[in-house]
Amino acid sequence: MDTMRDKVGLIMGVANDRSIAWAIAERLHAEGAELIYTHLPGPSSERRVKRLVESHAPKLVMPCDVQSDEDLAEVFTAIDDAYGRLDFMLHAIAFAPPSELRNPYLETTREGWHLAMDISAYSLVAVSRAAKPLMEAGGSIVTISYFGGEKVMPGYNLMGVCKAALEHSVRYLAWDLGPSKIRVNAISAGPVRTLSSAGISGFDEMQRHAAEKSPLRRNVEFEELAGAGLFLLGPDSSGITGEIVHVDCGYNIVGL
Ligand code: NAD
Which terminus of the chain, N or C, has less C-beta within 10 A? Predict the structure, then answer.
């Protein structure tokens, strides 16, 4: 029960108690990890996240918009000051303007593309670069993707293209950071109901289809994503990097 004892980790992407990041954080905390949290800037988000993570008694809970280099610098400076190191980092962040997911992909705007790519894909590069100097003894970085980055999921649209960029970023980052003993992997999660997924047109259909067609004939549970997160962020996955691990009840292997 203590596999993460003495490990310090940064959790980015907790919005509420239905966030995938929260499910993974709960598991990491139960395994003894010391957790640092960031939340979207703003009083309501700060209040909600601080209240939620209180039970983990974190030393640092900081605002961070991943589009802001200043916010990122403040977070990693604060971690350096408080701990002088980081052992793992969870990146569970994505955003696209709702209109970009409602309209056909063909109608994607330049503004929408830049915004969604910046928050959903580039941010992993930015936070990995910022984390590297703190991971002198090696480390593990995990992000969360979706099968819509590999195959067309009508309605997932621009976010699917962001996930494709995110997944290939995982491989390039794994290559760059491997010599520093820093691993980078993604969980490709089956659909679960969260604040973000509620904004995807056709989400109910994605969940229904996944439950009908996946080998396990059901949708994935938050606890299963948490288990995969713990595995990839922890020591048991020490030989795995650059991997996209599907935690989707096997949905991705089915062609019909
Ligand atoms: P969520 O809404 O709980 O989490 C999304 C997070 O992104 C929120 O915490 C939000 O504050 C954060 N965020 C958005 N813009 C930001 C910005 N500019 N700066 C910093 N943070 C920002 O929803 P979730 O479903 O838990 O999403 C977490 C990740 O999992 C996302 O990458 C999502 O695409 C991915 N994912 C979700 C599902 C699903 O079915 N829910 C499936 C596969 C992958």
Answer: C
